[in-house]
Amino acid sequence: xxxxxxxxxxxxxxxxxxxxxxxxxxxxxxxxxxxxxxxxxxxxxxxxxxxxxxxxxxxxxxxxxxxxxxxxxxxxxxxxxxxxxxxxxxxxxxxxxxxxxxxxxxxxxxxxxxxxxxxxxxxxxxxxxxxxxxxxxxxxxxxxxxxxxxxxxxxxxxxxxxxxxxxxxxxxxxxxxxxxxxxxxxxxxxxxxxxxxxxxxxxxxxxxxxxxxxxxxxxxxxxxxxxxxxxxxxxxxxxxxxxxxxxxxxxxxxxxxxxxxxxxxxxxxxxxxxxxxxxxxxxxxxx
Length: 287
Ligand SMILES: C[S@@+](CC[C@H](N)C(=O)[O-])C[C@H]1O[C@@H](n2cnc3c(N)ncnc32)[C@H](O)[C@@H]1O
Prior knowledge:
Blueprint: H1 6-19, E1 26-30, H2 36-43, E2 51-55, H3 58-68, E3 73-74, H4 77-86, E4 91-97, H5 105-112, E5 117-123, H6 129-142, E6 145-146, E7 152-155, E8 161-170, H7 175-180, E9 215-219, H8 226-232, E10 238-239, E11 242-251, E12 255-260, E13 275-276, H9 278-283
The structure holds S-adenosylmethionine.
S-adenosylmethionine is lined by residues 3, 8, 12, 29-32, 36-37, 54-56, 60, 76-78, 97-99.
């Protein structure tokens, strides 16, 4: 089914415009078997290496590649986004052009953690659009996002107004960028020295809720019982001597609940029996 309507092109144009503000990074987006978005981006000068279309159907991916010569990522967008975020990837735009009614906080947190802008489209089919919008705005807020414009309701391909789109920006910088910026670049010294010494306040530690979805890298040296550690940690993903965990929730909005990320990149089925405070977690955000 083609989505090649003028209205759809206005959405693609918004993605294109914002993505081009960061031309060194690719666009991660859903496309379908007609490759409408990929064709549009190519026709507007985006190089193939900046295009990362996704679809969960192998056939649709084959079609996208056959039509456009752009290789498509076959998989569930939610999983693609989370695993790419864990890898520290960075995009100019993540376009979650979905057809479902809700978005998970995990997907949105990961998307906002690796791109300055995220586009989200949801269906309001069969439910009041106000409910879908209210729910999505709550999840956007909890994921650390803000909407620079009101959500737009528009007609789907059947002519009925049952689709809503959101443009979302990360409140703070994407975490993957923050990761690579652990040392601050100080401004050039002034020619005239400052006459006053200014004490800059240290940034506040984020609240527990702000950590949900974040991957933490905890050095194995933090565990005193090395023998016990060796028995339970063998299948946990490790990076530079640090074990990988994802914050999956909070206890009374104060402490963080975690699940281990396993070597196959899947999350452990059970939560860890210990928790962390936001202050401790803050130390473990950098691999
Ligand atoms: C709305 S279309 C994308 C349209 C495209 N952005 C364009 O401008 O023409 C969404 C496509 O992604 C597929 N899809 C929906 N949810 C998905 C998900 N979670 N993961 C992967 N593919 C998905 C749908 O089957 C459909 O083929």
